[in-house]
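Hey,

The postdoc asked me to send both predictions to you directly instead of through the lab channel. I've kept everything plain text so nothing gets mangled by the mail client. Protein one:
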Amino acid sequence: MRLFYTSLCFLFGISLYAQNSKEFTRVNEFYIRGNTQVIGNNNLSKHKSKPIDATDEFNDETKMKYVDIDDAITTYNSSSANLTIPEGASIKYAALYWTATYPTEKGTKVAKGNRYVYKQNGDPTHDVQEVQLKIPGGSYIPIRGDLIYDGKQGTVKGVTSSRPYTCYKDITNLIKDNQTINGTYIVANIAATQGYISGGSSAGWMLYVIYENDKDPLQYITTYNGFNHVNKKGVEINFGNFKAPEKTETKTALTVSALEGDSTLKKDQIAIYYPEEQKYVTLDNGVRASDNFFNSSITIDNTYYTDRTPNSKNTLGFDIAKVTVPNEINTSIANNNSGFKLQFKTRADRYYIYFVAFQTTLNKSTTDTEAITSTTETKEEKEEEIIEVVEVVTLEEPREKEVTEVVEISTPKEIEVVEEKEEVAIPQEKPEEPKITPKEETTSIDDTLVKIIDKKPTKVPDVLRGYYIISNVFSSKTNAEKWANKLKGKNIQSNIFRRPENNFYYVSIGNNEDPVLLYEVLKKMRKDQDLKDAWILKINIQ
């Protein structure tokens, strides 16, 4: 009986995992002279057409609206991006992906007593597998994609409350048959929730292109898709079938796309396994920090990709990143037979990873001698290529934020309609007055300070009006207190308050009604490694 019970629990666990994720599988692989290009954009934002560059915006605090750049009668949202491949190059493969959160048509949040109530207004009405695509020189055409994952089947709260989904479609022939490849691509009618939902709503699309070009070096390129909900436990994905050519100097690039990463919330990471040292090494570059990799942006190596409309720096919960893997790890991977492993972690900002691609550029001596071939898997082969996914429990410092759902489901007495309601507590306790930082010499106002002054103030009950230096933000009050104690060990006094809009605990280390004065203090405090990400929040100033 005990054996039967254990087996039943094991099978039940597998069933739950399958409902909340989709194993990553290899879509195809190519061995060609050529390269890759990735473009995309977000279809939900704060404004229907204006770019959003403020990096301190949270998508769960923003009343999300459909982006709509064409105002066409046949589309309810749309955004564009421009594709450019070298002259003389030819398309080998092109895949269109789209993803969004879609639990309801429109969501609202209102204060109710000492609670914020999230209400879903109306069941979803659009088909998530249907979008409209306009290619250069053409008109809109309907695209029906393959469903990779739909959160409607989920069982954990972080999935069911936001219903994330991902679809894709191989559009290689569609692009190859078009007379014009380079130009503007518009994707419209991505089904998503407008307004507010618990955790925030987001939506976007990505076009991943592989092209052949005799002027480029030989490359091994392979793509994968799936779906993983990354929370505080972390996820490790072992791409066991990835094999870089052995004993060669290589250059490896990694392309990933995810949903629901916020620009301000820290402690989400992607790490690559370094076989030689037998450890994971976090990835970063000039636009993506190692502790905030998924930061609501679209980037190519060290630059923001802006050849799109709207070209928001903050894509409010949608990420595309193409990054170069460090050279020392490339060499180790090339001589390793255990495949390619990535680790995704977070302690503050849940997110959903759905696409990964690798490309390995071989050295010149290899490209001169190797035969150039390409392969595409059959459906049967692909189904056998199930990538191992391991749940990883991370042990982090107290300063890191826990990804725990701070939203409480309302009691039956409070439910007046059938739609789902979720409640967030509004803090009632009155914190002590934060310590005012001593005056320092002021300098001329720069653009960053202007944005701080012009930003809409945040309303926080029982907190004095002014500008506050925020050293860290936590979803757990216990972790906020631990962080405050750590600062106390450095003789830095702090105060903790809870922000009603997101229910997070903010650790302030100084405040003043003079933003110019406080900004100079902030710049000096940032010299401390633990305070390098400190920022200023405007509170209760009318």
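Protein two:
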Amino acid sequence: MVKAYMLTVSNLLSNVPPLFGDLAKILSGEIVFSHQAFLEASLDGSPYEVMPQTIIYPKTTTDIKHAIAFSREFKIPITVRGGGTSQTGGALGEGIIIDLTRHFNRIRNVNMMDHTVTVDAGTSITTLQEKLKGWNMEIPSLGVDSNKSTIGGLVATKSATSASFYAGTIREWIEGVTIIVDTGEEHIIKDGITPSGRLLGIYQSVFPLLIDSSPILRAAKPEQPDDATGYSIWNTSIGPRQLLDQIVGSDGTLGIITSVTFRVSPSKLFSITNAIQIKDPELISMFVDVAVHHNAERIFLLDQTLVTLTQKFHPDLLPSLKKAQFTLLVTHRDDDVKKVKNKATMFIKGLKVEEDEHVEFDETLVNTITNSDFAYSLIHNYGRGAHKVITSAGGMIVSLPQYASLIKNIDEYMGSKGKLYALSGYAGSGHLSLLSLFDPGTKHFEEEILNYNEEIFKIVKKHKGGISAVGGDGLARTPYLESFYNEATREIFKKLKEAWDPLSIFNPSKKVGGSTNYLRTHISRR
């Protein structure tokens, strides 16, 4: 038995390049060098492709610390990968990919007295939601952007959801995180802790930086709470909460999150979702205002393209809908069935719409069509695999009064290019996602993508918005931060990164250091 085991280990190590030999011997988890695994890890939900040098599936935090030590010694960067669903290239890296989904996927602790749950970063969001549902608990701002999305990915990108306008961003529901920093030290960051060791050094560097820069930060702070463009450095209060704010939405560039503790609340038993047909985008903001006034808890917008494609590819899924430019899904929830019906009824009366301009959707249908995987698959199927779905403009966010104008300007631009496109979004927060089809067989495909990014982001800037409300900045959006923040603010971003990660081993080219030249050479035609 021992000989067989030794033979297996020997065979595994024989495939390990010499550079990684010593690291492979001390890991309790797996280290992979297969070409097929590299091909899979070189792609995510974005139009980019970056080939890694190895993939590690750590079993313990000690494995992660060994990987960090190796990274520091040989100057090979680390990128943490969850479900690989990033639409911005956030899960792509040229060095070591650390995949937490295989072993860091457990719910560690449930405290019903404190109403908290601690969960591994590699746990899928759907897994956590199902467990919480069984305990009659929920995290209202916990949305599923994709069936494979992980807790770590959600926290790293601070993505908006259909409920965040009502329940607050995901940051408001995070009590603490466990993180491994650049030296390999493991720290818990939460209210009430006293920073020590390397974390204390980071705090002592960052706090004076933010205090001294407070006039710049006040002027640069995004208007929308869900806007995660750049680092979250707007909180200059004393204490660990400031460090926690920096970690949430940092795209994995400051350290490796291994677990997250969330605050939970009792789940609500009943919900009603009304689908409202909207003929004119100018009415969207008014309808959203009425929904908020009538205590709606989730709001989602989809355009006629998505409705038409749903009817084409899933003809039995949707109830009969009148043709309209947009459909607004508004969900009311309560523990009392009479109260939730009354909320929904009063909302419809407040809108003053005709009977045939609204219809109820059941919860299963709502969960299906608000999942970004669904919209992506519709556009992909329409392109029949010959065209590539471009997702880089999936995180736009503006103030609600700017919403209609943003949609109009996008429609004008996309119309001028003759491209099929679809719009959807968490309208309650002012979020809008744009999916479009491009032909990778064209000679100037790379330039078309970069020009598209630039023009769409110019439109967003014109409307005083941000570009990263969903999915983080990643590779796709980082080069365009200079359009949204002045040089002084971007310099603070750089200094923050240097304070946490002076060797730049964590997920480089995101948040700081990205370039359109790098994007150009890594756009995938696959």
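Summary for protein two, as requested: The first strand starts at residue 30 and ends at 32.

Thanks,
C.
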